[in-house]
Each structure stands twice: as structure tokens, then as C-alpha cells.
């Protein structure tokens, strides 16, 4: 199967770490199957490592950064991922795996074995949330599917907003808290979700002819239907996933993809109780966030 898979490593190149990750992949697959899709800004050490990587036969794409980074750098992810997937399509790879330059899959064989029966019909990704309770939240660390499917997923318009993380870095603590309240509120009204993963999934849903509802109850139902039909979510620990920094999302230990699928298929009182308990939680968070925005705005004018 390995000869049919393109491994696309996208994002900001990390000295030594990205280089070592590629060496791990080269122990399993051919250099001609690997594409490193990164930005032009590199350190001196990074440039030396890139020269070695290119000499080994790995394809390296240097992308121009988008004018707007988008929520949580989502536009950077779209640009660098799409460039790598286009390369995979041009080189006739049936399947593509998108991963990050600051992350590492230590057991690529396990990923291929887990995904083998799913790749022709679904996108394989990580589960790091309950996608009923948190609609449209499919982790974006990796995506693996047929190359044409992944190209369709990333062939979307860029987010028309800047990176709120950049704003937070130069803002006062009170403004950061207000920005968080605004984002918490936006997360529930079904428009431009201020989270990279939800932005990607919602745009993919739109391409499939679905409209994101503003009702949270309908969002939960649509999210469950769409994710169960278009995605297959796995546990990151099953493939030895390593990252430079610690991500809370990777410690998720809630209901698994299969658990949620069984719950949906069974239906009945337990499912109804689950949905309405989430609706109650939704109204609490939504109006708490809205009140927080008004309160902080009021204090700023005092």
C-alpha cells in the first residue's frame, strides 16, 4: 500500500525535529512519496537540513504566505496543504496523508493498517472531541484519504479574517478575555467559526450542498450525520503520534467514534437525553459568553 500513498508534511519547518521526522518516514517509504510543503523563511540550520532533504529525493515546495493568516493560522494550513496535495495528484498518488512539520507519526504502518478499509470512502483524522457535543470539531493535525477527496477538502476560499492569536500577543489581558468571550459566542451561531478545524469542516459541508443551521440542536444532528458519513476518526495514540508541545486535545478520553456511532444508531431515550443535556450546556455557555462581552465593553468605557 505504501507505494500508493503520498506523505505531505506542511507548515512551519522546525529545525532538527522536521528533519528527524522525515528520516523516520524514509525508513518506511520511498523519498519519492514524500512532499515537504513549507514557508520560505528558514534559519541557517534549516537551510542546511533542507539541502540534505532535497538531496535525498524528497520534494520540497516553498510557499508564499497568505496575506491574512485566518483564524488560528487556518489559511496557512489551507495554502501549504493544498500545494502538497496538488503535487500528489500530479504524480498520480491514489492516497494522500497530510501531517504537520512540527508533529511526527512514529508508526506509519499502524496508520495505514487502521485506515486501509476506510480510505476509498472517508477521510481519516484524529478524534479529540465529542463531535455531537462540539459540532463540526474534527481535529486537523492529520487527514488521510483518496488524493482527489483531500484536494476537494482543501480547495476552498481562504478565511477572510486575520489571526486572533497575533492579536492576543499584543493586547491587554482584558481585551484577550473579551476576544475569548466573542469567539465563544461565535462558536455557537453557525457563521464563521473562529476555530481552524470548524472553519475547514463547515466549508467542506457547504461544498457538499449542506447549509450550517443556526440552531445548536440541528448543528449537533447535522454534525453527527456528516462526520459519521464522511470521516473515520481514530485515536492518536494508536499510531505513536508525537508533538513538540503538549496539546490538551490529544488527551481526549471521552466517547469514541464507534461509541457515538452506536449511540446514534440505537437512538431512543438515552440519545434524546444526551442531546438535551448538551442543549442546556450550550445555552449556558452562549449567554455567559454574551454577558461577558457586554460586561467587558461596559467596563472599558467607565
Task: Indicate the topology.
Blueprint: E1 5-11, H1 17-26, E2 34-39, H2 44-55, E3 59-63, H3 74-90, E4 95-100, E5 103-105, H4 108-115, E6 123-126, E7 143-146, H5 147-154, H6 164-169, H7 173-186, H8 196-207, H9 216-230, E8 231-234, E9 241-243, H10 257-266, H11 268-300
Helix pairs in contact: 3-5, 7-11
CATH class: Alpha Beta
User: What is the helix/strand order?
Assistant: EHEHEHEEHEEHHHHHEEHH
**Helix and strand composition category:** alpha/beta
Number of self-contained structural domains: 1
Q: Report the principal-axis shape.
A: globular
Summed over residues and divided by their number, the pLDDT gives a mean of 83
The CATH level-2 architecture is identified as Alpha-Beta Complex
Number of helices: 11
Terminal CA distance: 65 Å
Q: Strand percentage, roughly?
A: 5-15%
Strands across the major sheet, in which order?
3-2-1-4-7
Strand count, sense and closure of the main sheet? 5 strands, mixed
**Low-pLDDT stretches:** 167-172
The number of E-state strands comes to 9
How much helical structure, as a percent, in the residues? 40-55%
- Based on CA atoms alone, the radius of gyration comes out at 20 Å
Model description:
By secondary structure, the chain is α/β, with parallel strands linked by helices. The chain has a single domain, classed as Alpha-Beta Complex (Spore Coat Polysaccharide Biosynthesis Protein SpsA, Chain A), CATH 3.90.550. 48% of the residues lie in helices and 14% in strands. The protein has 11 helices and 9 strands. The protein has helices at residues 17-26, 44-55, 74-90, 108-115, 147-154, 164-169, 173-186, 196-207, 216-230, 257-266, 268-300, and strands at residues 5-11, 34-39, 59-63, 95-100, 103-105, 123-126, 143-146, 231-234, 241-243. The strands form 3 sheets. The chain has a 5-stranded mixed beta sheet, with helices on both faces. A two-stranded antiparallel sheet has the order 5-9. Strands 6-8 form a two-stranded parallel sheet. Helix 2 (44-55) links the parallel strand 2 (34-39) and strand 3 (59-63). The longest helix has 33 residues, at 268-300. It is globular and about 60 Å long. The N and C termini lie far apart (65 Å). The relative contact order is 0.13.
Amino acid at each position: 500500500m505504501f507505494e500508493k500513498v503520498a506523505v505531505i508534511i506542511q507548515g512551519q519547518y522546525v529545525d532538527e525535529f522536521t528533519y528527524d521526522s522525515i528520516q523516520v518516514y524514509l525508513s518506511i517509504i520511498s523519498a519519492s512519496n514524500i512532499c515537504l510543503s513549507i514557508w520560505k523563511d528558514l534559519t541557517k540550520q534549516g537551510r542546511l537540513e533542507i539541502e540534505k532533504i532535497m538531496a535525498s529525493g524528497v520534494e520540497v515546495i516553498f510557499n508564499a504566505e497568505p496575506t491574512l493568516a485566518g483564524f488560528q493560522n487556518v489559511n496557512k494550513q489551507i495554502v501549504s496543504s493544498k500545494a502538497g496535495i496538488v503535487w500528489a495528484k500530479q504524480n498520480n498518488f491514489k492516497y494522500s496523508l497530510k501531517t504537520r512539520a512540527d508533529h511526527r507519526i512514529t508508526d506509519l504502518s499502524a496508520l495505514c493498517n487502521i485506515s486501509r478499509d476506510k480510505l476509498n470512502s472517508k477521510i481519516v483524522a484524529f478524534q479529540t472531541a465529542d463531535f455531537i457535543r462540539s459540532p463540526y470539531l474534527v481535529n486537523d493535525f492529520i487527514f488521510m484519504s483518496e488524493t482527489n477527496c483531500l484536494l476537494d477538502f482543501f480547495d476552498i476560499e481562504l478565511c477572510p479574517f486575520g489571526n486572533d492569536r497575533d492579536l492576543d500577543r499584543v493586547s491587554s489581558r482584558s481585551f484577550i478575555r473579551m476576544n475569548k468571550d466573542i469567539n465563544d459566542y461565535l462558536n455557537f451561531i453557525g457563521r464563521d467559526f473562529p476555530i481552524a478545524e470548524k472553519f475547514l469542516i463547515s466549508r467542506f459541508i457547504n461544498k457538499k450542498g449542506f447549509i450550517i443551521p443556526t440552531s445548536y440542536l440541528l448543528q449537533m444532528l447535522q454534525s453527527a450525520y456528516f462526520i459519521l458519513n464522511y470521516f473515520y476518526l481514530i485515536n492518536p495514540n494508536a499510531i505513536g503520534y508525537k508533538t513538540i508541545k503538549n496539546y490538551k486535545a490529544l488527551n481526549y478520553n471521552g466517547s469514541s467514534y464507534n461509541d457515538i456511532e452506536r449511540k446514534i444508531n440505537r437512538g431512543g431515550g438515552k440519545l434524546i437525553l444526551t442531546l438535551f443535556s448538551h442543549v442546556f450546556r450550550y445555552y449556558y455557555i452562549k449567554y455567559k459568553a454574551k454577558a461577558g462581552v457586554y460586561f467587558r465593553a461596559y467596563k472599558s468605557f467607565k
